[in-house]
Structures are given as structure tokens and as C-alpha cells.
Amino acid sequence: MRIGGFTPLTTLDFPGNLAAVVFCQGCPWRCDYCQNTPLQLASTAKGQGIDWARIKTFLERRHGLLDGVVFSGGEPTAQAALGAALIETRAMGFRTGLHTAGIYPRRLMSLFSTLDWIALDAKAPLDLYSKITGVPGAGMRFQRSLDGVIGSGLDYEIRTTIYAGATIEGMTRLARWLAKQGVRHYAWQTRRILDAFGYPQHAAEEESLWRKAGEDISPWFESFQFRGTA
């Protein structure tokens, strides 16, 4: 496993669970709004990441304190060792979650039996996927992964980051399409931008418009969340 980061405790990244997050190194897509750009490269800046054995030792000491472990990134399914890591995590008694962009549909579907929950990123309307990711055919890869997740029977969330240049019309069009595909659980999340001092920037007026648009589309889903910066 190539691991670029580790969060020992989160209440946000695995709904309903106290969890640790393993940030897998490497992603073949180059979304310009990515919040984890250092994880896009195949190796860390210093060429060395965190050893999986160290994380396992940490987890073994957290029995009864943590509920689950989330594998995020980067793109976790780019890692050949992910399946084995998920099996080992479950063997330690933890629930397993995955954050993915659906880049490798076949690999993703091969992992369903080792997962309890999936968060799948819906980047944009399909016709904009290649522009957003910088990769031709990216939208079709997402479509296959979406179909697999919806049909898997697993708990899931489909989520979209309000990227730079996104419009309410475009995001509403994406939401309508996702609802027609059978998505029941959906979320919008604002892009987290830090100021020169490392504090989140808040555009309250603009965010209120997005929040209102989210209220308008929420009836299309069994559950909908808007995650703002405030």
C-alpha cells in the first residue's frame, strides 16, 4: 500500500461511525479543484509514505474505541493491495468504508464483498467529465461505477463538490440525472478554500444560493445533505 496520510479519528468521513482515515497515494485524474493535490502523484514528495504495518499496529490498539476505517485518497482503487488491506481491516473487527471517484469500475465492484459503505464522487454532468478530470472517457467509467454501486446493496452516498465554474443550472441537471439513475442518497459539498492564514474562506451570500438550490432538489432523493463551509 502506498499511503500518503492518516487521520486517527474522524466523525465526518464515515457516517454514524467513529473512524480512522487512510489516505492512499496516487490518482490518475487531475481535477483542478482537488483538495488533496499532494496525493495525486504516485509517490509522496519525499518518496516515502506511511507503512501499512504501522497503521495496523495503531488499529489493533483501538479496539472498542473506533468503529471503522475509511480508505480515501488519492484514488484507493488504484492500489493493487487495497483488497488485502480491506480484508485485514475487517479481520481486526472494524467496519470498512471507501471514498472513490469510480475510476476503475471493475476493481471497485470486486471490492464490494469487503466493504460496508461507499462514498462515490459525481464530478459533474457526464459531458463535462473529460474537461474536469483531464482524461478522455472518464464519464463512462463513472457511469459504470455508479450502476455498480446502486445495484450492490451496500450503504452508499453519491456526492458532488461544487467546483470552480459550476453553475446552479449544471448542478441541478446533474442531480436530476442522478435521481433518474436511481440514486437515493446524495450530497453537495462546497469546495474548501483557505485564506493566506490557513482559515476557510466563506462566501456567505453565494453559499446561501447553493443551499437554496439544494433545498429545491432535495425532494428527488431519499436523503440529501448540503455541506457548507460554515
Q: What features would you describe in this structure?
A:
With 230 residues, the chain is of the alpha/beta class. It has one domain (3-227): Alpha-Beta Barrel (TIM Barrel), CATH 3.20.20.70. 31% of the residues lie in helices and 21% in strands. It contains seven helices and eight strands, in the order ββαβαβαβααβαβαβ. An eight-stranded mixed sheet has the order 1-2-3-4-5-6-7-8. Strand 2 (19-24), helix 1 and strand 3 form a beta-alpha-beta unit. The radius of gyration is 17 Å and the shape is globular. This is Anaerobic ribonucleoside-triphosphate reductase activating protein. Its cofactor is [4Fe-4S] cluster. Residues 22-177 form the Radical SAM core domain. InterPro entries: Aldolase_TIM, NrdG2, Organic_radical-activating, rSAM, rSAM_sf.
Essential attributes:
rSAM, 7 helices, alpha/beta, 21% strand, 230 residues, 8-stranded mixed sheet, 4 iron, 4 sulfur cluster binding, Anaerobic ribonucleoside-triphosphate reductase activating protein, metal ion binding, iron-sulfur
Beta content: 15-25%
The value of Rg in angstroms is 17 Å
Uncertain residue ranges: 193-204
* Strands in their spatial order, largest beta sheet: 1-2-3-4-5-6-7-8
CATH architecture heading: Alpha-Beta Barrel
- Structural class per helix/strand content? alpha/beta
Q: Tell me the number of strands.
A: 8
Q: How much helix is in the residues?
A: 25-40%
- Integer average pLDDT: 88
Shape: globular
End-to-end C-alpha gap: 35 Å
Short description:
The protein contains 7 helices and 8 strands, in the order E-E-H-E-H-E-H-E-H-H-E-H-E-H-E. The chain is α/β, with parallel strands linked by helices. It has one domain: Aldolase class I (TIM Barrel), CATH 3.20.20.70.
